[in-house]
Amino acid sequence: YICPEAGGDLLRDGPGVLPTGRNIHALDPYRMPSPTAMERGASAAQAILSQHRNAHEGAWPETVAVSLWGLDSIKTRGEALAIILELIGARPMKEGTGRIVRFELQPLEELVPAGRPRVDVLCNTSGIFRDSFANIIELLDDAFQRASTVEEPLELNYIRKHSFDMVSNGFENPAARVFSNPAGDYGSMVNERVGAGDWEQGEELGDTWQSRYSYSYGRGGERGTARPEVLSALLKTTDRVVQQVDSVEYGLTDIQEYMANTGALKKAAETAKGGRKVDCSIVEAFGKDVKPRELDQVLRLEYRSRLLNPKWAETMASQGSGGAYEISQRMTALIGWGATTDFKENWVYDQAAERYALDQEMAEKLRKNNPQAFQNVIRRFLEAAGRGMWEADDSVLEKLRALYGELDDELEGI
Q: What is d(CA 68, CA 259) in angstroms, rounded to the nearest whole number?
């Protein structure tokens, strides 16, 4: 019998993965973040702070909302967690076996860059992370509780500052910072609302996210306690959202959960702040460079390189029903990004309509392979125009309406 041990990559995870040839499991949650993840996450956090200050005349963000997703954390060994620790000014402490037993607060004078405050963090935790890493959640909660009471100037400790404000308003557990769905529940339901067209204003989608993620987790009995007042207070101070992308194969425009979580969180924060813009940093975990990019920049790049890329379009169309479905899902996600982040770029819709609807050969191929998916593609164009996301030519809209009517009759058997 060979005892199991955590697997991993020698370069990313270090010599602890040796020797090879053992039975392996994904990772040891008591050793997360790994040393490499901590190094990369710290660098990413410092770059995020620099990015924000450059955009806001040197001002520090008071609260940063960071997404903690389960599978992403397994793949990166906890890089998003490391971003949080760097922002709040904490370091993992290990016992003799190498297991992490505490996130120790660093003295203010050790924070990088010099003179910066502890930045408050709203942890947007997925259901899978919540279920898989209970130990991490407890360690994070412990760190936030200590940071909220440490004797430091309020202008240098935003966690303490915000907790102090909540105490004055009579809130219970004002240091709660780890939020997720209620126990046993998953997802924001925002993508379902976007898919069904069941919304009028983008603020409704932010409200849906907020209602779904207002449950606090931590030590003791903090196992999904509803604390909407604490979450609302944190959203009012949120100046930036951070989302890590862990795969080179899939991006923000490929998976609807990104717009349903990151996009909806951004909208919820903007609503809480009275409509003021909240920035969003995207950090790639699959490359050497951890420099963050702004959300709009990433969306433009992805739509150019994927949905509007002729090679990508032809490859998807050649994949039969599944390929048509993938195109359809990305058109729905495009609507979602417009609803949650006001991403309304005419050139994206113009070129997508030309490629997938007005090109007769492509349209016929999608129509044959998956008429329901093709109808959804056309419906999203018409929806975008109707919601003011796309300033389309009248002649184009007339062609799209006629095509949609034909598809409707065809699917109804008329």
A: 15
Of the candidates 200, 188, 209, the one whose C-alpha atom is nearest the C-alpha of residue 383 is 200
In single-letter form, the type of residue at position 301 comes to: L
How far is CA 259 from its chain centroid?
A: 7
Query: What pLDDT score does 242 carry?
Result: 98
Using alpha carbons only, what angle is made at residue 55 by residues 274 and 144, rounded to the nearest 5 degrees? 65
The Cα 180–Cα 136 span in angstroms is 14
Shortest CA distance to 336 belongs to which of 136, 197, 163? Answer: 197
pTM of the model: 0.94
Full 3-state SS string of the chain: CCCCEECCCHHHHCHHHCCCCCCEECCCHHHCCCHHHHHHHHHHHHHHHHHHHHHCCCCCCCEEEEEECHHHHHHHCCHHHHHHHHHHCEEEEECCCCCEEEEEECCHHHCCCCCCCECEEEEEECHHHHHHCHHHHHHHHHHHHHHCCCCCCHHHEHHHHHHHHHHHCCCCCCCCCEEECCCCCCCCCHHHHHHHCCCCCHHHHHHHHHHHCCEEECCCCCEEEECHHHHHHHHHHEEEEEEEECCCCCCCCCCHHHHHHHHHHHHHHHHHCCCCCCEEEEEECCCCCCCCEEHHHHHHHHHHHCCCCHHHHHHHHCCCHHHHHHHHHHHHHHHHHHHHHCCCCHHHHHHHHHHHCCCHHHHHHHHHHCHHHHHHHHHHHHHHHHCCCCCCCHHHHHHHHHHHHHHHHHHHCC
Q: Which residues pair with 240 in a beta bridge?
A: 64, 279
Angstrom distances, CA of residue 6 to CA of 20, 181, 246, 279: 11, 29, 20, 37
pLDDT beneath 70, residues of the chain: 7-14, 16-17, 24-26, 414
